[in-house]
UniProtKB/TrEMBL annotation:
UniProt keyword terms in alphabetical order: Signal
Signal peptide boundaries: 1-19
Cell membrane as UniProt keyword: no
Protein name according to UniProt: CamS family sex pheromone protein
Organism listed in the record: Mesobacillus jeotgali
InterPro entries linked: CamS
Length: 405
């Protein structure tokens, strides 16, 4: 117990010594356009080269929060955001650019683009409906419906199942990130590029009636990729119609989200760069990222060696609690190589001494079973909340261990 306490104390002191000094920030000028300039602050401290510094004060985008309602799981929500930042690093290095939440795609714009496209007959019917409403309210105006939906239309007649199977909703969400870079003056930053993420559905969910059963239509990766690229080109064309974005470089990525029942997130699988002032997407580049659940059939099929490491670890954990089998892992793969493994162990403890003893035992298993080149994080929890955290970074001789009090 004393050893664990001293490790935790040493790390607290180390982190305190390395903590950012928030009194020392970089004061800059942010150029929003040719006439508008505002004072801003950029933190000098950066956690890692993997992360962007963020310009302050934080200015939320108008479309902020929509992702929560449009994606299937919290895993996809988190990965869509952080994954887009990783994609952006291919075009906008973290040592040159700073991050700002998307400011140009408004909530109403994103909402209209996510809708289904309407057929000519549906547009006509909608305009007549709105025209009648305007006349009833004594408004003498010409109504024109903007047909901006990027998802395929439903004809509106015939079997509902067949219509949905032939015309699934591909596009689930659109996310915009802005990246600022220094202009001619050292202390002045301006928009240097934007990243656009398109979240696509691997499963289309639909209902035949308002409160009826929910049906599913699986969408293959090949179909999703083809449709996603067509949507991406139209998105680029529309973005170039926004005055402030006519000439900035754009990086756009396609993200395949998982089903509603998945316990691992989806991933970005391709991206493209659009040069300054151009509408031409050009060539797409593959992104070989993937999340795998351990244990699972996919892990057995594609990553048998890594599954063996995990299963041996799991079996040794179960020796401590013979009737327990709740160990699950989520592995992050890049170019087919396991990079990170996050393991969750939910357990019932009956005392602090038991929690400490179990944590020490699991820490030894982490050092024993997993290759030194991967990052491993183990979260131990009970019905009372988090009990312990074990983190081992690549090539690290001693892990970080924290027991929650």
């Amino acid at each position: 117990m004393r050893k664990l306490s001293m490790v935790a104390l040493s790390l607290v002191l180390l982190l305190t010594a390395c903590a950012p000094n928030f009194q020392k920030q970089e004061e800059v000028v942010q150029e929003k356009d040719d006439e508008t300039k505002e004072k801003a602050i950029i933190p000098k401290y950066k956690i890692s080269d993997k992360y962007y510094r963020t310009i302050m004060p934080f200015e939320p985008g108008e479309a902020r929060g929509m992702v929560v309602n449009n994606l299937n799981t919290r895993y996809d929500i988190t990965e869509f955001e952080t994954g887009l930042m990783r994609v952006a690093q291919n075009s906008f290095p973290t040592d040159e650019y700073v991050f700002k939440e998307g400011q140009y795609l408004k909530r109403s714009t994103v909402t209209s683009w996510l809708e289904r496209e309407m057929t000519p007959a549906q547009v006509e019917a909608k305009e007549k409906e709105l025209q009648a409403k305007a006349k009833k309210e004594n408004r003498n105006e010409k109504i024109t419906v903007k047909n901006l939906g990027l998802n395929p239309p439903l004809p509106g007649n015939g079997d509902v199942h067949e219509q949905n199977k032939k015309n699934p909703i591909y596009l689930a969400h659109i996310l915009e990130h802005n990246y600022l870079v220094q202009s001619g003056k050292e202390d002045t930053y301006q928009l240097g590029g934007i990243a656009i993420g398109l979240a696509l559905n691997s499963v289309h969910y639909y209902q035949t009636e308002q409160y009826g059963a929910v049906y599913e239509k699986n969408i293959s990766r090949s179909v999703l990729e083809a449709e996603g690229k067509k949507i991406a080109q139209e998105v680029i064309n529309r973005i170039r119609g926004i005055e402030e974005l006519r000439n900035v470089p754009i990086t756009i990525g396609l993200f395949e989200q998982e089903s509603r029942s998945s316990v691992v997130p989806g991933n970005f699988f391709t991206y493209a760069e659009v040069s300054q002032g151009s509408n031409n997407i050009g060539s797409w580049k593959d992104i070989k990222e993937e999340y795998i659940l351990f244990p699972s059939e996919k892990a057995e099929k594609d990553h048998r060696d890594d599954l063996t490491f995990f299963q041996n670890f799991k079996q040794d954990v179960e020796e401590y609690f013979p009737n327990f089998n709740g160990v699950i892992g989520k592995g992050f793969y890049l170019d087919g190589q396991l990079q990170e493994l996050n393991i969750e162990i939910p357990i019932q403890f009956y005392g602090e001494a038991e929690a400490i003893g179990f944590t020490q035992y699991v820490t030894g298993l982490v050092m024993e079973h997993f290759p030194n080149y991967i990052s491993v994080q183990v979260s131990v929890s009970s019905v009372l909340g988090q009990e312990a955290l074990i983190v081992k970074k690549p090539d690290q001789d001693e892990p970080f261990v924290h027991i929650y009090q």
